[in-house]
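Hi R.,

Here's the chain you asked about this morning:
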Amino acid sequence: MKIQVITTFWLLTFCLYSSHAWAIHNKSTTLQPIGFANNKMFYHDIEKGTVVIKQGGNKTPLESIPIPLNLGEQLLACQKFKSQETQLIALLLDKGMLHIQKDDRLSSVSLKAEHLISGLCGNIDADILPEIIILAEKNREVFLYIFRQGSHQDSNNIIRLKLDAPVGNYQLHADFSKSSAHSIVVLDARNKIVERIYPHQLLPRFEYQKVDHSTMWQHYTNMNRASAKLMWNAGARSLAKLDLYVDSVTEPISFHEKRAPEQVKKILKNLSVNQHQQAVDELTQVYINWKRGKNYNAD
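And the predicted structure, written out as tokens:
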């Protein structure tokens, strides 16, 4: 398995912080979840300085990968859907800026928080690319942030969600099938669920405009505007992309069975920002007909 290494200049920067960063934030265990994808969970073993990969419910690690240095405040591990290449991402919060190191690329974004609590890398929406998901403390409050791949420096594409939880020692976990999350779970130090967050809570809000990209799909498939907007807003730029997401979030669906529409509706409802059932129903019909080789809006 190929691990893309962190570049030398970033290592030198992080060396200033690495000796004490983890101790400062009082991590309660040496095995921290840092990513999920492809039926695998990725953990940072802080004591051993390795990334541990576990598959399914197996307790025995699938693989253990050494890390050159203990980097920054938070280390993440990412895989794209159906890829075996693991990418390490290092995060450092310093003076209101979150520095994100991926491969040999360094990006920074404004993040007015005191410190990072926990982080994961994994997919939550129909764009399929893994997102950076972090918990951070600000003014004695806990916030969850989503940074989408390719848009880390665009503050308009960062989603922030305030949690109804006091400041504490939390971990992020993913409830996921195959490679996409059904929900993100916040656990306390006793491994009790503090909050469960669903994908539709983490997607950007949208407003209808006279002309935008979703209009194109509205005309192409004869969907109503809300259904087209739901698909576009969830990250799917085509029915083929939506199909890829469905494949990443559930076991194979038999699309010619009667129960197939209800299975699809459940998935799409989880992506609907405003929980619009009619939009979910119509997009389901269009998608099912597409899978069955029928006209998009056929009965």
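The helical segments are 8-18, 21-24, 213-221, 225-233, 239-249, 260-269, 277-292.

Let me know if you need anything else.
M.
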